[in-house]
């Protein structure tokens, strides 16, 4: 039998296996670095949601002040009026009296994607909203009336 040290490729299988493992680790590290860089870039590119600064009752509705303009959706459903705001803020609720003398309850609650503002009364409500910039802030005026 020959001496194993005389063969050229006596340990080639161990070298090949370690090269394969090193190659897989290198590609895994590249994938991980690419994923982390993508997360960081995505965080930089996507804006933070607007922040609710203040809520006050106004004539026949509410005045909401934000640090910047939020995206919103309005809807009427079974006599109530609601807004979905893509913003962050604390939950709040209250009651207001319309010009007609009717009481309207309102609630602002955190929802899946932002805040949900709902107006509820004994009779069906109609709502409208208007937003405008005021200096460095954005103000949303929500008015409700009885149908």
Description of the structure:
With 147 residues, this protein is α+β, with helices and mostly antiparallel strands. The protein has two domains: 8-45; 50-146, Immunoglobulin-like (Sandwich). The protein contains one helix and ten strands. It has one helix at 12-45, and strands at 50-58, 61-66, 72-77, 80-85, 87-88, 92-97, 103-111, 114-121, 125-134, 137-146. It has a five-stranded mixed sheet with strand order 5-1-2-10-9, with no helix packed on it. A five-stranded antiparallel sheet has the order 3-4-8-7-6, with no helix packed on it. The chain is elongated and about 90 Å long. The chain starts with 11 loop residues before the first helix and ends with a strand. The model has no long low-confidence stretch (mean pLDDT 85). The chain crosses the membrane at residues 26-45.
């Amino acid at each position: 039998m020959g001496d194993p040290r005389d063969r050229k490729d006596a340990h080639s299988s161990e070298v090949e296996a370690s090269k394969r493992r090193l190659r897989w680790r290198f590609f895994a590290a590249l994938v991980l670095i690419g994923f982390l860089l993508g997360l960081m870039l995505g965080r930089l590119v996507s804006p933070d949601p607007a922040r609710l600064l203040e809520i006050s009752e106004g004539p026949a509705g509410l005045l909401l002040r934000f640090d910047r303009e939020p995206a919103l959706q309005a809807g009427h459903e079974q006599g109530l009026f609601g807004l979905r705001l893509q913003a962050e803020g604390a939950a709040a609720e209250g009651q207001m009296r319309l010009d007609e003398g009717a009481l309207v309850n309102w609630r602002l609650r955190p929802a899946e994607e932002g805040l949900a503002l709902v107006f509820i009364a004994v009779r069906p409500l109609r709502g409208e909203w208007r937003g405008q910039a005021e200096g460095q802030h954005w103000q949303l005026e929500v008015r409700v009336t009885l149908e």
